[in-house]
Fold:
Amino acid sequence: MIVIGVDSHKQTHTAVAVDAVGRRLAERTVRANSDGHLQLVAWATGLRDGSTDTLEPAFAVEDCRHLTRRLEGDLLAAGLTVTRVPTRLMADARRGGRSPGKSDPIDAEAVAIAALRHPGLPTARLDGPAREVKLLCAHRADLVKQRTRVSARLRWYLHELDPDLQVPARGLRHHRHVQQVYSALETTPGVVARLARAQLDRLIELNAAITALDKELKVLVTAMAPALLKMPGCGVLSAAVIIGETAGVDRFRDKDAFARFTGTAPIPVWSGSSAGKACCLSRRRPKSATTPPSSRVRPREPRALLWTRTRPRREPSHPGLPPLGIPHVRPSERPVERFGRRAAAGSARAGHG
Structure:
């Protein structure tokens, strides 16, 4: 078996081929374009022809898709297998290598060795509609940030021009309130008023663009994952974020692998006599990105409220969890509970004093 590790950059890709035990066989650097990718495929085919291995060489790339997306597409189009190696695993393999220092060949070899050590890593696949949803969500988030900055600057202009001109909170998101402010400033002279009108024009553009993106996302999400929209507390934007971050739930081998990806899988934390008595949850990924919204927002539907009040006490589902019947608490409720316990303890101490 031949594994080819690739260290990718904007201008070049460096590839190092290793055998099944991690011995370096060959090295090649190509340009980061379609011609260079074809040269890499031909080089990999030559490695197979020059060895007794009848299997196609397997490529392993560091999971930096902004650099490897085009390379992955060309390799997949050529019928080759591409494995995505997380940066953490590559760094561990490099630290354990015999070659000191850091270079493109060393990194490429570390990628290949990490792929050999961890055979269950996810394989690359061509981008589908999920990436379109992710790109639209990222673009919408950028527009929302711009609207927030424009709104904050506009409110200071309005306060300077007319402190009595009140705009409701989040009112600048709506066309009606924007038009009312625009009418109030239409005949006001001065540079500040002119700048305020320019900010209002920009707000109108941003609001229209965000509304158009919301409609487009609703169509895509409804077609791709209608079940998400039926979950209590999960709207179009939350479902779009989950679809974009997951990029196809069928690429995970089981639910445990998906839990590890989302950062909700339990991690054993014990030593000696404390075996199996404690564990913690990983927080390697943003909780708001991939955890189900119904577990981190306040339910508003009657059936959701009924479920949160009548659900049974949680039993351990993992050997590392404590064998106690602990009530299931949403992550958003834990800080509130801790604050309540501290306040109660303070009141008790004050009463004894």
